[in-house]
Amino acid sequence: MTKRFLHITTLFVLMISVVLTGCGTEPAANDSGKLQVTATTGMIADLAQRVGGEHVEVSALMGPGIDPHLYKASQGDIQKLQQADIVLYNGLHLEGKMQEVFEQIGKQKPVVAVTDQFAESSLIASGVGGGTHDPHVWFDVKLWSGALDRIEAELIKNDAAHQADFEKNADAYREELAELDQYAREQLAQIPREGRVLVTAHDAFGYFGKAYDLEVVGLQGLSTDSEYGLKDVQNLVNLLVERKIKAVFVESSVPKKAIESVVKGAKAKGHDVKIGGELFSDAMGSAGTPEGTYPGMVRHNVDTIVKALK
Ligand SMILES: [Zn+2]
């Protein structure tokens, strides 16, 4: 960390403290009487909205195409976090640049990492941004339903009057996720053994590969914060040529340049690799589209991968 960065961070934290103290300890005002939930990623907001239903108002800080690894809270975000009754984030250092903000806001209200009760044994060891585990847990649908449980418990704790509704909603969504998990399993099973390699720009699909039996290779490390070099490109090109891999994938929240250079490299060696399509990795699609929901995002990825590798 550079001295300049440290300095800016310190200033920023001071700024937040001043604003927070200015607001006092009164609960955030909201006219609707509904529980105000602010989530970092769309995937978390999706869970909170489905469980909370009509009793919550949910907003997500990070919209379509936004990279959570590099994301820094804006002044507007700080305001949303202050107005929230509950703040939900992924944890496992996914939101690597927001740790200090969470700590500050956490002095005033529940700030919950939805993965904080995941069993250590369910996590993939390998750190990012100072963490010790892969943060991309939402791509194992069964595992992600643990985040649903966590959010259900937190909503009940903060709004006990609507416990029955929260439980009913959570049960229904749990069932839908179980079906989605089954769908992913059945679809991906169609890819022949030798073709079960998923090549993407960054290592977002570790849990996906583990859950659905695909080998996963990323050009970049677990965080988009890490640089890739010529050597990484060359290694990946060699792998594509040797294993005769048919397609690689770009990601909605990562620049496409990196993976395109790999395709070019393979072509130069006489191996034609297709770009199999765009996968949603660290952010969902636009609101109002099928990919703007968690199940829609997973289905899109599964269908895109199966179509390109079958
Ligand atoms: Zn990522």
From TrEMBL:
It comes from Tumebacillus avium. Pfam families: ZnuA. GO terms for biological process: cell adhesion; metal ion transport. Gene3D superfamilies: Nitrogenase molybdenum iron protein domain. It comes from the Bacteria. CDD domains: TroA (cd01016). Its main location: other. It is found in: Cell envelope. One of its GO terms (molecular function) is metal ion binding. This is Manganese transporter. InterPro entries: AdhesinB (IPR006129), Bact_metal-bind_prot9 (IPR050492), Lipoprotein_PsaA-like (IPR006128), ZnuA-like (IPR006127). Belongs to the bacterial solute-binding protein 9 family. Residues 1-21 form the signal peptide. GO terms for cellular component: cell envelope. Keywords: Coiled coil, Metal-binding, Signal, Transport. Residues 163-190 form a coiled coil.
